[in-house]
Design brief:
509 residues, mainly alpha, elongated, single chain, 25 helices, two-stranded antiparallel sheet, 60% helix, 3 domains, MetI-like fold
């Protein structure tokens, strides 16, 4: 029966009260949904915008933000390198891609590497695909490179220090494959080792990274090292060739000199080429940036495929055992009352007064003595009985019409048959609610699951997500928790009708 009748609803005060109630409900819904949407959209972001707390990523509509995100990705988040390579903003880019493709592999480094604060990059993914096509399996890669990688997604590119004079790579099979792989990279991935960059690095080393120690003629109006331009006089260029550049440039000259030799004017059109590429590929770039974190998390889950299986088995066993133990105990207390039934219920409810963390250590020691650690029994058995569920089910069984059970007794039905044919079918809504609680408890278990199953082969999905949290940035973690929340969301939506029918307090039926 409604609180406000149809006639009373037409009054101004009633309408105003109803409007205020709906406004409060809408505000509550927004405060619930908004953080979830922030979590979802943060998974679409990266190191440049993951902390801005905007609901819609700026790079979806702003080309300048997209360009900044692209350059940050290309230069692995190095602000110094981005400033150094931000030359030629308005220069002519004609012939620049062909020029990059003509450079030998020791005169340029590969862009889009994985930064130290990230977990994946375009270059790493491309390198792994190259190795998978060449070797097939990670075991073959490990044998060729003399490495120990658990999966192909864990194989990283070799380090490159080609800008350092005198640096020599380790001439092993991995480096040979790396050179073969570098030759397949398009111009977009090629970052030339410019004379300007070498000159800046030389000045940093010479002054021990103290910009104020530079003479004014060396600063040339710059305020920091990465703003120092490539010298125009031939004496300093000769100094760069003699003292700074690696052997690969001794005969051909610096990148700037090679560009000049082809009839082009300085500066190199690096910034202009990047602008043109972003303008012509903005749709594909937005898609790649949008789904990168989610693709990585899904790939990470597939690497640890046992985690999905473990979680599924854990949830299924938990639901089955809780829907077996708790209904049997509640049915016995309801159908066969004793003088101590009230005390038993009080004891069961008293277990809810203690946090689950209090029982973890005793449970761990008991399971250790029984030799059950790192088994599904250790995950499932301690949660088989629940005082709350037994109390809830007993109240529900007490509310069932006793005439139905008396009719069954007259017909000669045994107690177990009445339980299976009468009590349990009528209790399906409550069983659905209990199953959802059991699923949420098992699916979201982390601390206890990690305590009693420390063997990596027994880790659940939540344990692996926690391990990912130790190395992954915020955007990747938001993508991970969003994907982890999807099963619970689907289960809740699928069982919503059952849940609404099942959330019935004892005595209200």
């Amino acid at each position: 029966m409604p609180l406000v009748g149809k006639v009373g609803r037409k009054r101004f005060r009633a309408r105003f009260a109803m409007a205020m109630v709906y406004l409060l409900l809408i505000a509550g819904a927004i405060t619930t949904v908004y953080p979830f949407l922030i979590m979802v959209t943060t998974g679409f972001k990266g190191p440049t915008d993951q902390n801005d707390n905007k609901l819609v990523p700026s790079y979806w509509s702003d080309n300048e933000e997209l360009l900044a995100k692209y350059r940050d990705d290309k230069y692995s988040g190095s602000l110094e390198l981005m400033t150094t390579m931000g030359i030629g903003d308005s220069a002519d880019t004609q012939g620049y891609d062909e020029f990059l493709m003509s450079l030998p592999p020791d005169q340029w480094i590969a862009g889009f590497k994985t930064p130290s604060n990230q977990v994946t990059s375009r270059l790493t993914q491309r390198w792994q695909q190259f190795l998978e096509k060449k070797y097939g399996t990670v075991e073959s890669v490990n044998a060729a490179f003399n490495e120990i990688n658990g999966a192909m997604q864990l194989v990283s590119p070799p380090p490159e220090r080609l800008e350092i004079k005198g640096w020599e790579p380790k001439l092993d099979q991995k480096w040979k494959d790396w050179l073969e792989f570098k030759n397949t990279l398009p111009a977009e991935f090629r970052i030339p080792i410019t004379g300007q960059r070498l000159w800046q690095d030389y000045l940093r080393t010479d002054t021990k990274n103290q910009f104020d120690a530079l003479p004014e003629e060396a600063k040339e109006g710059a305020s920091k090292f990465e703003e120092i331009a490539y010298p125009s006089d031939h004496k300093r260029r000769a100094l760069i060739l003699d003292e700074v550049v690696p052997v690969a440039f001794q005969s051909a000259g610096t990148i700037e000199q090679q560009w000049e030799a082809q009839g082009h004017d300085l500066p190199l059109p690096i910034a202009a080429a990047e602008k043109n590429l972003v303008a012509t590929s903005e749709k594909s770039l937005r898609q790649e940036f949008t789904w990168r974190n989610y693709n990585y998390v899904l790939d990470y889950v597939l690497i640890n495929g046992r985690a999905v299986v473990n979680t599924a088995i854990f949830c299924i066993l938990t639901i089955l055992i809780q829907l077996t133990v708790n209904p049997l105990a509640a049915y016995a207390l309801s159908r066969f009352p004793m003088k101590s039934t009230g005390k038993i219920l009080l004891f069961l409810l008293a277990t809810m007064a203690f946090p689950a963390e209090v029982a973890m250590i005793p449970s761990f020691l008991l399971l250790k003595d029984l030799g059950l650690l790192n088994t599904f029994a250790a995950l499932v058995l301690p949660t088989a009985a629940s005082g709350y569920m037994i109390f809830l089910l007993k109240g529900f069984f007490d509310s069932l019409p006793q005439e139905v059970f008396e009719s069954g007794q007259i017909d000669g039905a045994p107690e177990w048959l009445m339980m299976l044919k009468i009590a349990f079918p009528l209790s399906k809504p409550v069983f659905g609610y209990m199953a959802l609680l059991a699923f949420m408890g098992a699916y979201g278990a982390f601390l206890y699951a990690f305590l009693v199953a420390q063997d990596r082969s027994m880790w659940t999905l939540m344990v692996f997500i926690y391990q990912l949290q130790l190395i992954a940035p915020r955007a990747v973690m938001m993508a991970a928790v969003t994907i982890a929340a999807v099963p619970t969301l689907f289960v809740f939506l699928a069982a919503q009708r059952v849940i609404m029918r099942g959330i019935v307090l004892p005595g209200e039926r």
